[in-house]
Queue: 3 jobs
Job 1
Amino acid sequence: MHIPFEISARYPDVRVSVLDERFLKYRIFSSSVEQLATGMRWAEGPVWFGDGRFVLVSDIPSNRIMRWDDAAGAWGVFREPSNNANGMARDHLGRLLVCEHLTRRITRTEYDGSITVLADAWQGKRLNSPNDIVCQMQGADRGSVWFTDPSFGISGHWEGMPATPELPHAVYRVDAAGQLHCVITDLQGPNGLAFSPDESILYVVESRAKPHRLVWAYDVGKGGALSNKRKVIDAQGAGALDGIAIDVDGNIWCGWGSDGSLAANPQDLDGVRVFTPQGEAIGHIHLPERCANLCFGGIHKNRLFMASSHSLYALFVHTQGAV
C-alpha cells in the first residue's frame, strides 16, 4: 500500500506540535516532516549507517529489510528473506544486529556478510521472538547486547510462524564474552529499549501493561546489574508506545499510535511523542500513520527517521541522537 503524503507548504510545519515550551529548542522552524518511502506492510526497527549514508528498515510481514540511500534517494531491498526481521542496531564495531522472529534468534552480520548467531535459546528452551535490540558503546561492558523477547512473532503467520512459547516474556543481555543472561522477567510484552546518553539508565517499554502501556527505567551497574526500577512514562490510554530513541539531552522520543478506539479522532495520536527524562510530554510529531519505531541519523545525527506502518518518514530536529 502506498500512502499519499504532501509535505507542508509553510513553516513551521503544523505536524510538529509544541506541548510544552521546553520543546521549542528542539524544533527547527524551517524543517518539515518528509515521507522518504512507502509501500511496506508493517515498518519497524530502523537503524542508521553513517559510514554508508543509508537507513535500514524492517518490513516484517513482507519478510524483508529495506534500504533508503541518503545520498541517492534510492529505495530498495537490502535483505530478502530476512527471517521476519524486526528490531535492528549496530554493535560497538559497527556490525548489524538483527532480531529475527521466524528463527527466534539474535544475529550479527559480519563484515564479509556472513551471519553469526548470538542467541537463540535460554536454558535449553527456544527464545520467543526477539523484538528490539541495543548495544552498550561505553565503559567496561562495551559490546554487551541487550534485547527484548515477547511472543508477538509466534502468535500467527503475519510476523513469523505460530508456536507455543517455551519461555516467559523477558529481557536478555549477551555480554561481551558471548554469554547470555536473563535480566528482566516481570514485564508483559517488553518491547522498545534504549540507554540514557551515559548508559547509566536502561529504558524498557512494557507494551502489554494493564491498563496502560508504560516505560520503565533501571539503573545499570557493572556487569549489567539492574536496580532501582521506576516508572517514567504512563501512556494513560492516549497512545500505543512501541520503540524509543534517546537524544543527547536524555529526552525520550517514543513511537506513538492509536489502536483505533482511544480517541474520537485516533489519527491525532499517530506519530512520535517526546518526553523529558522525567517523563513529561513536551512535543508531538504528527504522522498520517502509527509510528512503530525510530532512530536518529543523518550526517550530523540530527535527523529523526520514523518507521510508521507503511512508510518511512524523516524530520530534522535541533538535537542529536545519543547513539
Job 2
Amino acid sequence: MRFRDEYRDADTARKLADTIARTATRPWTIMEVCGGQTHAILRFGIDQMLPDGIELIHGPGCPVCVTPVDFVDKAIEIAELPAVTLCSFGDMLRVPGSRGDLLRAKSRGADVRVVYSPLDAVDLAAAYPDREIVFFAVGFETTAPANAMAAYRARRAGLANFSMLTSHVLVPPAMRAVLEAPDGRIDGFLAAGHVCTVMGTREYEPIAHAFGVPIVVTGFEPVDILEGIYLCVRQLESGRNVVENQYARAVRTDGNGTARAIMGEVFRVVTRNWRGLGDIADSGLALAGAYAAFDAENRFGAVVSKDAIDAACISGAILRGESRPTECPAFGTRCTPDQPLGVTMVSSEGACAAYHRYRRADLGTPRQ
C-alpha cells in the first residue's frame, strides 16, 4: 500500500502540475499511447490539473480496439464450427465484427470460453484431444511473450489439435503512422510502460530522432503520468527530442531478454491492418514458419479483409487522435457500454468507455 500511495500522493501530483505550468510557455499537444494511461488520466482528472495549452490526445493504445473486423469475423466463423472450442480473453467477447460478436456466437451454441492465460488453452488441448482448441491471440507486445510460450509449449507437447488466430500489433510503427498523417499535430508522446518493460526503449530512439518529437516512457499512476508530462514539456521547451524513461523502476533500456527471445523464435514481423488506421507496414506479429502448423488461418482458412462499422460511430477518428469521444453524436445515447456501436466503447481500455465511466456527470450525459 505504501508503494501505491507514493505514486498517488495528492501533494506530489499538485506540485508536478504547478511545475508543468511554470515550465510551459506555449501550447503543446502530447499523445499517450496506452489505454491504461487514458483511463488513469480521466479517472484522476490529470488533464484537468494541467495548465491551459497543454492538451492530451488519446492514441491507438487499446489492443482490443485496433483489432480489425475481419479477425473478429474469422474468430466467430471458427467458433461456430463443430468440434471446435475457441478460447479468448474476456475483453474480446463483445468486440463487434460485421455479423455480431463472440458473445452472440456463444449464445447461439458456439463453444467460446474465457481463459485467463493462453496456457489454459494449451491445457484444454491436452485434456480434449478430440476437439480443436483455438486461442484468439490479440494484443500489443505486452501479451505476446505469453502467447508465444503457448505455441512453444504446444509444439513441445506435440498437440496437433491446438492453434492460434493471431492478431498481434506493435506500438512503434503505429506511432510512426500517427506522425506521418498529413494533418498530424502531435508534439510529443507518453509511451506505454508495460510495453517497454518487455521491449525496452531503444526502438523509440529512431522515431524521436526522425520526427523531432520527445518520447517519455511513463507508468500508470497519477504521479507517473504527471512526471512524464513534465519531462515531455521540459524537452519541448528546450528543443530536445530524445527518449526518456520515467518508469525506471520497471523498464530497462533493453527490456526483458527472455521475453524478447521467445517472441523472436515464435513470431515473425508482418504488415497488419489496424482498425481505424488501416494497413501499417511491419506493425504486426504472425507465427513464424516453424510454428505454421499452429496457425489457425492455415487450418481453417485465411482471414478475408472487410470493413464494417456503424456510420454513426467515429471510433476510427478517436483511435487516430483526431476526435474525442464526446464529439461523437452517438456517445452516451445510441452508444453505451451495454449497447456499444464501436470498439472504443466496448473495451475496458477504450477511450469512449473511459469518458462514459468518468466524465458523464461533467458532460450532462444521462445515466443508463
Job 3
Amino acid sequence: MPIRPLAARITKLLPVLVRYGAGIGVRGLEVVGKLGLYMLAARSLGAHDAGMFFLCLTWAGLAASIARMGLDRALTRHVAAELAVGAGRAARADVISGMIWSMLASLVAGALTYAVAQPAALYLFAEPALAGPFALAAFAIPPLALSVMVGSVLAGLQQGVLAQFVQNALWPLLTLVALVAFATKLDELLLAMIASMTIAGLAGLAPIVRWFLRAGDATASVAVEGEGMGAGMGAAAALPGLWRTALPLSVVEIIQVSLVSLPMLALGVFATPAEVGAFSIAHRISMLILVVIMSIGAIAAPSFAACHRRGEIDELRRINRQTRLVVLLFGLPGIAVMALFPATLLNLIGPGFDIARTALIIMAMGQLVSCLLPCQDIVLAMTGHGAYLRTLNLIQFITCVVLGALLLPAFGASGAALVAAIGVAQGAIGTTLMLRRVMPGAF
C-alpha cells in the first residue's frame, strides 16, 4: 500500500485508536500487575515454589472457565443485542440466570478441587508439598468466575474498559500490593490472591446493580426469525435462549483455556517445578499479545453483536477490518521484542529463567499468526455461529493433544512451546476461514 493512503487511513483511525487505546491502557495495568506479580513471586518464592504457584493459578483459571459454561460470552452477546433493540427486561433476565448458574457451578468446581488436592499432588504431579497450595487454590475458583462474569455483563453494557479492569487488571494489582507488603510465602500469596479476586468481582457488581435499579423498560417488538446470516436483515431477529448460545461457547471456552493451560500442566508431569516455572514465565510473556487482542476484541464484541442483531452487515465488516488493523498496530512491536530479545526479557525476571528463551521465540511466532488474523472467533461468537466455533476448537484441541503426546516427552519446554504456538496459529487461521465461508460479508 502506498505511504500516503496508508497515512491517511491511520489518521482517520485516530479516534478509534484512542478508544481502543483506553482499553489497552487498562490491559497495560494488567501487564504491570501480572508481570510485577510473576517477577516478584519468582524472586520471593524461588523457582520451586513459584512453579507450584503457577500450577495453582493455572488450575484455578481452568476450573473457573469450565464453571462459567460459556455463559460469560453468551451474556456479552445477549446484553448488547437485546439493548440494541430496546429489550432491557430480556437482557436483565438473562443476566440473572447466567450469574446464578455460573456461581453454582464455580462452587461445585471449588469443592471438587479441594477434594482432589492431595491425590493430585501425590499421583499426578508427584509433589506432596503441592497438596496444601492446591487446596487453597480451590477457594480462588468462585471469585475468579465472578469477576469474569460481571466483566462480561459490563462489556455487553458497552463499558468495555471497566469490564477489562474488573476482569483482568484489578486482582493482579491488589495481589502485587499484598506481595510487596506482606505475602512473601506461597500460602500467604494464594490467600492474598483469593481476597483480591473477591474484591474485583464485588466491585464489578456495583454498576450492574445500578443498571438493574433504573426505572422503566423500553422493550421493542422483536420479530421471530431464524438465527444466523439470513436472520434479521430487515428487522431484529429474536435471539435464541441463553443456554442455546452458551452451550457451544462453553465447549469453546473450555478448549481455549485448556490450550493455554494444558501445555504447562502437562509439562509439570515431565519436568521439575523449576523448569515449569521458567516455561510458565515465557508462556505468560508470549500471551501478552493475546492480552492486546482480547482487549481490542472485548471492546469491539458488543458492536459486532449489535450490528448483527440490526442486520447492519456492512457496518460489522467495517468494524471488523478496523479492529484487525488496530491489533496489528499495537501487537507487532511486542512480537518483535520477544523474537529478537528473548533472553533479555527472561533475565529481567531473574537468574535461570533464560533457559526458556527458545520456547519464547517459538511461542512468539504463534502469536504473530494470531496478530495477523485476530478476533474472528469473537465475530463468530457474537453473531450466533458458536456451533462452527465449537467444531473448530475441537479439531484444534485434538491436534494439540496428539502433538503434545509426541513432543513433550521428547523435547520438554520446547515441545510444549511448539504445541502452544501451533494451537494459537491453527485457531486464528481456522476461524478466519470459517467466517469467510459462513459470513463473507463480515470479513
